[in-house]
Amino acid sequence: MAQLRIALAQVNPTVGDLDGNADLIVEWTRRAADAGAHLVAFPEMMLAGYPVEDLALRASFVEACRRALDRLARRLADEGLGDLPVVTGYLDRRPVGLVRSGQPAGAPLDAAAWLHGGEVLVRSAKHHLPNYGVFDEYRIFVRGDRLPVVRVNGVDVATVICEDLWQDGGPVSVTSASRAGLLLSINASPYERNKDDVRLDLCAERAREAGCALAYVNMVGGQDELVFDGDSLIVGPDGTALARAPQFVEHLLVADLALPAADPSAEPGRVPVDALDGTTITIDRHVLTPDPPPAYPVLPQTFAEPMDDLAEIYAALVLGTRDYVRKNGFRSVVLGLSGGIDSALVATIASDAIGPENVHAILLPSRYSSEGSVVDAEDLAKRQGVNARVVPIAGMVEAFERQLDLHGLAAENLQARIRANVWMALSNEHGHLVLTGGNKSELATGYSTLYGDSAGGFAPIKDVFKLTVWDLARWRNTQAGVDLPFLHPFLHEPIPEAIITKEPSAELRPDQRDRDSLPEYTELDPVLADYVERDMGREALVAAGHDAGLVDRVIRLVDMAEYKRRQYPPGPKITPKNFGRDRRLPITNAWREK
Questions:
Q1: Which residue numbers are catalytic?
Q2: Is 413 known to sit in a ligand binding site?
Q3: 564 labelled as ligand-binding?
């Protein structure tokens, strides 16, 4: 057996920031070197950021990424880090002569590179290209067909990229034939609820299939709708978890592994192998450092326990909000604070994400606002220390009503649209990002005002059903005084109990309640989960135990609201199917479930 100290750099790049991402690679490589690592690995597309989407089809960006990789290799050597092998993801392209009709323009590759001694030693590309959910890679990239196997300190290390683990056949299937001692997978695997357990099981299964230990490094951070949770891990050849990084924070997971020594008779070169998916994968062997190092003291393994369900969701919402604000150049946010549960949770997420001093809460009482709602909103602002301002809108509404003869729903929505005008005006004046307060239950059923409460730049709870909104608010209150990296250190409960227990209302007419327009959320949310996230049709919904009349009502509400959802701001994805790239339905659509 040989010893290998591997460092998995679970870090947070920004799409398109080639210089900033290179700085991160150098910084964390230095940390790995200081920890005595023999090999450091970074996530998928680390240099370019992920997902690059159609930037991959822009030749200027692809060439800039290729040049940035060469500069990075030289810089690592210039800064005394050239002896430490670095594996990183980047954006590449196939040679022009290999481009075929029907391929994406420029034949871009979701690629991985080994950097050593100031040079790019090995290049490879993702073989399996996901084309489901939020992924659109089959349209953007062309497929790789190599499994690089690089000998480091006497251990053969094979490298694959993200989706190659999730699909049968391909590079993982030929890893056992390569007799690698370690399978290294670099990833940009987005978070969704309960994915951590699925990911661990997958890694265990693939390690057993490959017949070797498996190291899985994942990205962390927010990118538009996506949140990457880290959760990097290492499993043994029998699938036993050996080391695990914490979720939702940057972290260097350093582990000492006892691995089979490489067969000295396995010479550098290329060997084609049947990949068991109708393709051929070429094993591409390289020898970097042939001999294992002398024995050294073994570090204790790091094993971060996964978070509980609500903590995990809340951390994802905070990280997604923080990175959207930070990476898009904002320093502060503004939101309407109504005294209701949704705006209360959004304000709390914002305080945790960027600090309450950077949160501007606007109280916009109208003639129908209850005294309790105003008092509750003021109480929340005081508890959290956010900037609060009262802007009564009754006079503004009256001014519109003198010019327009509006009744019923049109009159109600006028108030919501005036409120949105106030937020947007303050956003323009002070440079705040407007946070939108709608939840997934409202988005699903169209229970929002277009250009009113649906207006804004980012929607932190867009993918959170109403029942979960209450659960998260209660959970957050239990964490007052708890030291967690994604929470502001509030000493007292940040959300008043009165907000959590009151019956929800839009307060756009006298004595209005959500249940006047919607089923009770205890009935509504389970139907929405089955219809929206599981794509169950009417018959399947009824067979699952949902009331037939309720099903018909909910389906009608959801189907009629597609045009509203298309105009809604982005927000963090936490479920298997969000309203965004996950769910792409036509707005003009005559199909109705029967």
A1: 44, 126, 162
A2: yes
A3: yes
